[in-house]
Structure formats: structure tokens, C-alpha cells
Amino acid sequence: QVQVVESGGGLVQSGGSLRLSCTVSGSIDQITDMAWHRQAPGQRRALVAGITTDDRTNYLDSVQDRFTISRDYAKNTLYLQMNSLKPEDTAVYYCVFDIRIGYNTRLYWGQGIQVTVSS
Predict the structure, then answer these.
(1) Percent of the chain with pLDDT over 90
(2) Percent of the chain with pLDDT over 70
(3) Residue 2's CB: how many other CB atoms inside 10 A?
(4) Strand intervals (E) in the chain
(5) What band does 1 get if pLDDT is binned at 50, 70 and 90?
């Protein structure tokens, strides 16, 4: 059984910072790519940032230079450091892991965590 647990969301003023964390546990053979997505009310879920096994990263244009994605291999944990937050960053944030168990590979999503940025 694989569990994915997110933490770190909340309410912050415009210009503030938050750090999201996401930890996966269970009988896992390999974790490859990891990513953060977000979904604002009335909008589709969108990729915010991704990181590969060799630590290559990619970002949504609107968060480039403000957000930083990182991973701790030993802790099976993914992070998203969010600085200079703007009201338009308000959304539910989801982490996702690409996990192999035996011969099967699939995506595992976190439960989602609310981030609210007030103006």
C-alpha cells in the first residue's frame, strides 16, 4: 500500500512564502519523476514544477524564478519552496510521484493542499 501525504499549505499575504512537502511511503521499488500540479477554482489542473531522477527541473512560466522544486531521496520527500507569492497562485496544490512496484509503474497523487494568497 502506497501512501502520499502533503503538508505545508495555508494562508499567506501577497509577497510571502510557503514551503510544501510531500512524502511517499510503502513498498516501493523505484520512484522516478516527481511533480507539483495545482488547480484553481474553475480551472484545469496544471503542472507547476517537475523534477526528474537526475534532478532536471522544469517550471510553469508564471512561477519561474519564484518557486523551487527539490527532492530528498533518503526521505522519499518532494518539496516546493514558493516565494514572492501572488494572489493568482491561490489553488489546491497536488504532488504526484511516478512509482514502480514490481513490473507495474503508475502515478500516485497526494490528497491536495490549499494555498491561499491574500492581496
Answers:
(1) 93
(2) 100
(3) 13
(4) 3-7, 10-13, 18-25, 30-39, 46-51, 57-59, 67-72, 77-82, 91-101, 104-109, 113-118
(5) confident
**Structural contact between residues 17 and 9, judged by C-beta atoms closer than 8 angstroms:** no
Could you give the C-alpha distances from 65 to 68, 77, 79, in angstroms and in order?
8, 22, 15
C-alpha cell of 38?
Answer: 495545482
Assigned C-alpha cell, 36: 507539483
One-letter-per-residue 3-state SS of 78-95: EEEEECCCCHHHCEEEEE
The three cell numbers of residue 88 are 493568482
Dump pLDDT digits (tens) for 40-77: 999 999 999 999 999 999 999 999 999 999 999 899 99
Q: CA distances (Å), 74 to each of 16, 25, 31, 36, 38, in order?
A: 29, 12, 11, 19, 26
CA–CA dist 68, 37 (Å, integer)? 13
